Amino acid sequence: MTTTAPQEYDIVIAGAGPAGLSAGLYAARARRKTLLVERKVTGGQISLTAAVENYPGIDSINGFELAQAMHRQAEKYGMETAYADVSAIDQVDGKHLVVTSEGSYLANAVILAGGADYNRLGVPGEERLTGFGVSYCATCDAAFFKDQTVAVVGGGDAAMDEGLFVTRYAKKAYMVHRRDTLRASAILQERAFADPKMEFVWNTVVEEILGEDAVSGVRVRDVVTGETRTLDVAAVFIFIGLTPNTDYLRGKLRMDGGGHVVVDEWMQTEVPGIFAAGDIRADSARQVVTAAGDGATAAIRADHYISDAFPAPQPARGPAAATTR
Question: What pLDDT is recorded for position 316?
Answer without folding.
Answer: 64
